Amino acid sequence: MSDESKAEKFLEIFNKGKEFTEELLRENQRLRFRVATLDNEQAGLSQEELQHLRHEVAQLAEENLRMQTRFREVEDENKDFANRYIEIEEQNNNLASLYVASYQLHSTLDFREVIQIVQEIIINLVGAESFAILLRDEKTNDLKTIASEGKDAIPGIDKISTRLGDGILGQVARTGESYFVSHEIAGTKVTVENPLAAVPLKIKDHVIGIIVIYKLLQQKDAFTAVDYELFSLLAAHAATAIFSSKLYSQSERKLNTIQSFLDLLTTN
């Protein structure tokens, strides 16, 4: 749905609420008028006419109650729609930012540049104050920190070394399943081994590392659906960029070694 269509839908729902309010006020006015008329004319009415008027007033009161109930329902719908609209706007903004960030990630094959870009994304897009990026050693299966931020807040995150399957971090790397705290973030005791979140860097089913979040810049009570989607997309793009740049760096070193060897043979 386009921004214009969403705005029109939003306006349409609020207009319905306005119409219900105006109709409710008109019915209230009519009811008060009928009650006043009944009081003035009661002395000159027959018992049958009086009963009829009382019945009519009771019907109006019942209708008035139904309209008040419906108005509250529409008001709740408006609030739900407004909250959902804000959530969608936030998600769209994050996805747009992620698109730009993913373009930056794939714009270079320099390993150090890629890691720097990933760090900037985690800070600016995810809103993390303390985090670590761990890569997996294919020979030993150890997970080690290659970059981190906020080590003063969480000492030791710049020197993490854990084996595949050990603790929360090792389990995330082994299973390829993300970890998030299941309770409120505020007041959570965070340590190197117990982060707020740990997201695997995966290429298909192969985990090459993990992004570990220890502290957020913005205080949140809990992770939202937008956060989960953001982490998932970020991890996929970051994993591809890191893996590609790492392979390129290794190939470049080998080529430089071969070239140096050829140059040495040529000069001799």
Q: What would your notes on this structure say?
A:
The mean pLDDT is 79. The longest helix has 59 residues, at 47-105. The chain is built from 5 helices and 6 strands. A hairpin with a 5-residue loop joins β1 (128-136) and β2 (142-149). The chain has a 6-stranded antiparallel β-sheet, with helices on both faces. Helices cover 62% and strands 15% of the residues. The chain is of the alpha+beta class. It folds into 2 domains: 3-95; 106-255, Beta-Lactamase, CATH 3.30.450.40.
Main attributes of the structure:
268 residues; alpha+beta; Beta-Lactamase; 5 helices; 62% helix; elongated
CATH topology value of the largest domain:
Beta-Lactamase
Helical content class: 55-70%
Distance between the termini: 70 Å
At the first level of CATH, what is the class of the largest domain? Answer: Alpha Beta
Query: By helix and strand content, what is the structural category?
Result: alpha+beta
User: How many domain units?
Assistant: 2
Query: Beta-strand level of the residues, as a percent range?
Result: 5-15%
Strand order of the largest sheet: 3-2-1-6-5-4
**Secondary structure tally, helices:** 5
Number of strands: 6
List SSEs in N-to-C order: HHHEEEHEEEH
Overall average residue pLDDT: 79
Q: What summary fits the major beta sheet?
A: 6 strands, antiparallel
Cα shape: elongated
**CATH superfamily (homologous) name of the largest domain:** GAF domain
What's the gyration radius in Å?
A: 32 Å
What's the CATH architecture of the largest domain?
2-Layer Sandwich
